[in-house]
Backbone:
């Protein structure tokens, strides 16, 4: 049965009877031979069949009553891999949040708080366990941001999100990384192939390197057979400029220096390139690379998803307020909802400020999330070239 599901879940689920359907739901929770990528994509589907299956699958977990939030999140994400598209991730995490809030009404009075707190832990996990991030979010900052905003009103989030509770969440994430199936840099890459990179030493010449685009980062290798990249270039906050039919450059328009990371036998070393000049073998290849890179320069995909969710919920409650009128109840509801989401004005700003100046390659699997924020765009106007490139001789 699992082999049939792995091969084609859409057709298989629609053709089985109710007894087999219930048995399949149970097997997907306990079997280790489930294709976690296939399961994640199917759970996030938009068809009514997929949505019903997602609801039944999530409700198939044992009751999460009095179970720690981070422990529940670990259990949930260990059974499948989050899919590519933001809409799919949104549906899955919404269902998770509804079940946890329903099983723990004294901790969360609404599922939106559980939804956003889950992403808060994911951001903390990235910050804490990415070896290329030197300046970590402190416990005081994490607790303060969440305590100051998410629990500003007990009526909006429940009375259990105390400083002690949030501090315990922080300690457990720091002590034990949120993990799902590990993969290689080559797997599920948005783009990979040979490009030529202009050398950074005094003798300017083109160097052929193997490039991989994934996780909002560009990785390049000396050869295709290398297991570990030579350099990692995080794309948040950078700009892209076309130089010719074959060549283009990546640069930072704000601080001039790209905070790339070179991986050495002695550990990561921070780079000081002012720009990277790259050249493809054909105009078609150059355009493909530029389009893919531009879509990843938008920013951290997790942060973008949170921001979009926040905007949607605020608009929803503004509409509800207008429909109900200007009574105190509707105003108070709107204020509480905006309070519960304004934490990400602090949390996302912390990550936006830090990620723009240091490498991030999340060990948590959000690789495909980067290409999925198709409805969010951020124009990157071309800027004047900033002269010769600095470098460290790599």
Residues:
């Amino acid at each position: 049965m699992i082999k049939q599901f792995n091969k084609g879940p859409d057709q298989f689920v629609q053709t089985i009877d109710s007894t087999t359907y219930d048995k399949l739901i149970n097997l997907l929770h306990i079997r280790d031979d489930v294709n976690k990528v296939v399961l994640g994509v199917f759970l996030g589907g938009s068809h009514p069949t997929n949505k019903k299956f997602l609801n039944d699958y999530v409700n198939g977990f044992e009751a999460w009553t009095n179970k720690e939030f981070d422990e529940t999140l670990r259990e949930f994400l260990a059974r499948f891999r989050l899919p590519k598209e933001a809409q799919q991730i949104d549906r899955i995490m919404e269902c998770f949040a509804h079940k946890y809030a329903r099983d723990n009404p004294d901790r969360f009075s609404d599922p939106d708080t559980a939804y956003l707190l889950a992403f808060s832990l994911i951001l903390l996990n990235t910050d804490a366990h990415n070896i290329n991030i030197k300046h970590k979010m402190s416990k005081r900052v994490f607790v303060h941001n969440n305590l100051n905003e998410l629990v500003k009103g007990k009526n909006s989030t429940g009375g259990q999100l105390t400083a002690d509770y949030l501090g315990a969440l922080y300690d457990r994430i720091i002590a034990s990384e949120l993990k799902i199936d590990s993969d290689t840099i080559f797997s599920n890459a948005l783009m990979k192939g040979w490009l030529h990179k202009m050398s950074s030493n005094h003798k300017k010449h083109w160097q052929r390197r193997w490039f991989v685009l994934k996780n909002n980062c560009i990785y390049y290798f000396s050869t295709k057979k290398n297991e570990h990249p030579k350099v990692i270039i995080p794309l948040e906050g950078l700009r892209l400029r076309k130089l010719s039919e074959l060549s283009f450059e990546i640069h930072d328009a704000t601080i001039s220096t790209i905070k790339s990371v070179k991986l050495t036998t002695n550990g990561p070393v921070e780079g000081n390139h002012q720009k990277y000049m790259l050249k493809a073998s054909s105009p078609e290849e150059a355009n493909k690379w530029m389009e893919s890179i531009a879509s990843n320069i938008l920013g951290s995909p997790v942060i973008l998803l949170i921001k979009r969710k926040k905007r949607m919920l605020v608009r929803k409650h503004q509409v509800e307020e207008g429909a109900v009128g200007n009574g105190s109840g509707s105003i108070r509801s709107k204020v509480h909802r905006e309070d519960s989401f304004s934490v990400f004005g602090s949390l996302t700003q912390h990550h936006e400020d830090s990620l723009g100046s240091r490498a991030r390659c999340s060990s948590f699997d959000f690789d495909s999330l980067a290409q999925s924020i198709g409805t969010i765009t951020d124009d990157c106007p071309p800027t004047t070239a900033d002269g010769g490139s600095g470098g460290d001789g790599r």
